[in-house]
Design brief:
The protein is α+β, with helices and mostly antiparallel strands. It contains 15 helices and 13 strands. The strands form three sheets. It has a six-stranded mixed beta sheet with strand order 1-2-8-3-5-4, sandwiched between helices. It has a five-stranded mixed beta sheet with strand order 9-13-10-12-11, sandwiched between helices. It has a two-stranded antiparallel ribbon with strand order 6-7. Strand 6 and strand 7 form a beta hairpin. Helix 1 packs across helix 7 and helix 3 runs parallel beside helix 8. The longest helix is centred in the C-terminal third of the chain and has 18 residues. The relative contact order is 0.16.
């Protein structure tokens, strides 16, 4: 059995501790939550990468690796994520749980101290970040931003959200954009880093066998160098409904062999904060969220109109995003059939096996979260960003009660907002 607790360590600095003896490793993360903006996204994404290069005590990767080796080969990685319109940057660490230490030594305290050191005691020169570390990680980040176009499936969804949320924070990429990253200097990055430490909401996560009080004590000691701020920014999410009856259509041509058709729907304001959220979650699954869904079984398998077709739900933003791969000349047919399948859900034309199969898949996914530490951390980060406390088990219980009629009613709120089509270049 695991026990989940949450407490405030300092003003605006929170610890969520999952007390469990289920795993041989412990998981620890420190995440700074900041509003996602075009101006700061690139710098925010760069900060943990530069911090990971070295600290005042362990000035390079080699010294940090040696410190991790002393913790039975622990691992610390920078993390840059996007939850709704919040950018989440920091570190995620995994190390041997104290219960399995060979000589009974404590590992939690030195591991927490190392994370605190990475965040608060960077390796500097002339009072700012080292120029060589900044330049190296800038080049790496720009490479990552450019490389996003290589995975056309992900790229199409990214372009869809950029166009759909052009005037909303959600349209900003979690890594920022190439131009703003290229303009970063060691001085400007240092200034942004100091601002982030002062203003970001800080979320600390622990999963392991240590008692929550001991975890809190270790993290308080590790983070005592954080600037004191009673008014840390609480990130929000702007939920909108479709602007008009006709969707925006965006087409792009590239040298590709397979077309990518992505459709973006607004949920009529229905999000994770509504009582009906499990209904929307299941409606999305019935439509296109599982291998038993209408998109997969009909558009892909029966009619062979798509190489793949699926729908995902952005729970905080109130979006359902459909992703599909098609032959260029099947654009209109595939588009019409995807919309026809949604209409069937809206009319409640859902077979028992479709509803129950999708329900069991979602409930299974909720319970599987409890079997993997990184997935638990991802789940609770999403809940924290949304200001929610519902556990995976509680969400699974609510999914059990959803009816066919409720699924149809939630689907009826979906409105097509934007269509993005990536096609091949004309010969």
């Amino acid at each position: 059995m695991s026990q989940v607790t949450r407490r405030e360590l300092f003003p605006g600095v929170w610890l969520r501790a999952v007390h469990t003896s289920k795993f041989k490793s412990s998981y620890l993360s420190i995440t700074l939550l900041a509003p996602l903006t075009k101006e700061t996204a690139g710098a925010n994404a760069l900060i943990p990468e530069v911090l990971r290069r070295g600290t005042a005590v362990h000035p390079d990767m080699e010294a940090l690796s040696a410190a991790l080796d002393e913790l039975y080969g622990g691992a610390v990685e920078p993390a840059v994520r996007k939850r709704g319109e919040t950018q989440c940057v920091g570190f995620a660490a995994s190390f041997l749980d104290d219960a399995y230490a060979l000589k009974g030594e404590r590992i939690l305290e030195p591991a927490a101290a190392l994370l605190g050191e990475l965040l608060l005691k960077p390796c500097t020169e002339k009072g700012v970040f080292r120029a060589d570390y900044t330049a190296g990680e800038k080049a790496n980040l720009i490479d990552r931003i450019r490389a996003q176009i290589n995975d056309k499936r992900t790229y199409a969804t990214q372009r869809l959200t950029q166009e759909m949320c052009k005037y909303e924070a959600y349209g900003v990429d979690r890594l920022g954009d190439e131009a703003s990253v290229a303009a970063i200097t060691p001085e400007s990055l240092w200034e942004r880093y100091q601002q982030l430490l002062r203003t970001a909401q800080v979320e600390v996560y622990y999963c392991g066998s240590a008692q929550p009080d001991r975890v809190a004590e270790a993290l308080r000691a590790a983070l005592e160098g954080l600037p004191v701020n009673e008014d840390r920014i609480d990130p929000a999410c702007d939920v909108r409904v479709s602007a008009g009856p006709e969707p925006i259509v965006v087409e792009e041509a590239m040298d590709v062999s397979q077309g990518k058709l992505a459709l973006g729907f607004r949920t009529g304001g229905l999000t994770c904060w509504e009582e009906d959220f499990p209904v929307l979650y299941l409606a999305t699954a019935v439509f296109g969220g599982t291998t038993l869904s209408k998109l997969f079984m009909n558009v892909r398998e029966k009619l062979s109109l798509c190489y793949y077709a699926s729908a995902t739900l952005e729970k905080m933003k109130g979006l359902v995003l459909v992703s599909s791969g098609i032959e260029f000349d099947k654009y209109q047919t595939a588009r019409d059939e995807i919309l026809a399948q949604l209409e069937a859900v809206k009319r409640g034309e859902i077979e028992d096996w479709e509803l129950e199969g999708s329900r069991r898949t979602l409930i299974g996914a909720c319970m599987a979260i409890l079997d993997e530490q990184s997935r638990q951390e991802e789940y609770w980060l999403g809940q924290t960003t949304a200001g929610l406390e519902e556990s995976p088990k509680e969400l699974a219980a609510r999914l059990e009660a959803v009816t066919r009629e409720q699924v149809a009613a939630a689907a009826q709120k979906l409105q097509l907002d934007t269509i993005y089509f990536l096609k091949g270049k004309e010969d």
